[in-house]
Amino acid sequence: MLLNTIKENMAKFIQNNPQNFVEELDMMQIWDQPLMGVASASDPLWEKLKEPNVIGPDHLTPDEWLSGAKSIISYFLPFTEHVRSSNRSKGLPSKEWLYGRCEGEIFNNTLRKLIVRLIETAGGKAVAPALDERLTVANHVSNWSERHAAFIAGLGTFSLNYSLITNLGSAGRFGSVITDLEFEPNSRPYQEIDEYCTKCGECIDRCPPLAITKKGKNAESCSKFLDKMLKLNKPRYGCGKCQTAVPCEYQNPTLI
Ligand code: B12
Ligand code: SF4
Ligand code: SF4
């Protein structure tokens, strides 16, 4: 019941909230309707994420973020066709993508706060790790990974360039909220961590600093390129060439 209320409120928010529209770009809409999944806080995968070859011991479990945690609500916000198609050229990121990355994340934070508020109004406790002062990112690794939360909640799998591919593709952003209320978890319609990636290799040629190879993505080289983009486009940055003009841009390529 509460989950439906959350879904309905998210849908209305995406349609009506002014933060989802960019005035400077002719009221461009940033996000389309999201996908949502629920993971159980007692899923054994949360402990597995602490293994050094998965994320590492600093990654916090839901219970470490919120004592008594029962469920994790995870969602994927897909970029609109307008934002995605603008970034299909090669080379530098489009202006629309830069706004999508930066103004889009401001909207994403407001959406996280909306979910927290709805849960608290219903008498539950809720924490959005991305908004919590305990959140850290060190050496390109965070103590709360939105992608791994989405993987556990059944939303999609990793890929050659490490993007998480959902049934609405990879061009978008994730968010999550941990709560002590119990919701029915979603099943995971996959067995392998990269099952939705066909290994077509099309993202390899898209990457300006050649950070992607057949073996995976070099986070350092991607990060340096993003720093350059920040210098050129301050206060905005972004790239996302590996998520546009590729078969996994807006769909699950294994279902084509
Ligand atoms: C640090 C960071 C970066 C770093 C690199 C991170 C990395 N390792 O890839 C830099 C700065 C380079 C970066 C770049 C970008 N980022 Co970034 N970034 C983050 C951040 C803050 C933390 C990521 C993290 O800690 N990862 C942990 C490491 C360990 O993850 P990993 O290497 O991918 O994990 C591998 C292992 O776990 C392995 N594995 C091994 N064994 C097992 C076993 C199991 C069971 C599992 C599940 C996995 C597993 O599989 C994984 C993939 O190979 C997140 C936000 C957040 N807090 O989650 C956003 C985030 C990952 N970024 C995002 C985006 C959009 C981008 C960019 C496109 C930038 C842009 N907007 O233009 C680019 C390129 C994305 C790409 N191709 O991956 C999105 C992801 C969207 C998506 N579809 O995947 C996120 C989730 C932000 C968000 N709120 O949506 N990012
Ligand atoms: S472009 Fe192809 S290889 Fe690259 S992540 Fe998408 S499906 Fe995988
Ligand atoms: S975001 Fe850009 S630099 Fe980073 S891996 Fe994707 S294409 Fe390469």
Structure description:
The protein has eight helices and twelve strands. The chain is an alpha+beta fold and 256 residues long. Strand 11 (212-213) and strand 12 form a beta hairpin. It binds cobalamin and iron/sulfur cluster (2 copies). The site of one iron/sulfur cluster (SF4) has 15 residues, from helix 7. One of its GO terms (molecular function) is oxidoreductase activity. It comes from Methanobacterium bryantii. This is 4Fe-4S ferredoxin. InterPro entries: 4Fe4S_Fe-S-bd (IPR017896), 4Fe4S_Fe_S_CS (IPR017900).
Strand % is 15-25%
Please provide the count of β strands.
12
Order of helices and strands: HEEEHHEHHEEEHEEEHEEH
User: Strand order, biggest sheet?
Assistant: 3-4-10-5
Number of domains: 1
Distance between the terminal alpha carbons, to the nearest Å?
A: 34 Å
- What is the CA-based Rg, rounded? 18 Å
Structural class: alpha+beta
Largest sheet: 4 strands, antiparallel
Task: Tell me the helix content.
Answer: 25-40%
Query: Can you count the helices?
Result: 8
Mean pLDDT: 98
Q: What would you call the shape? A: globular
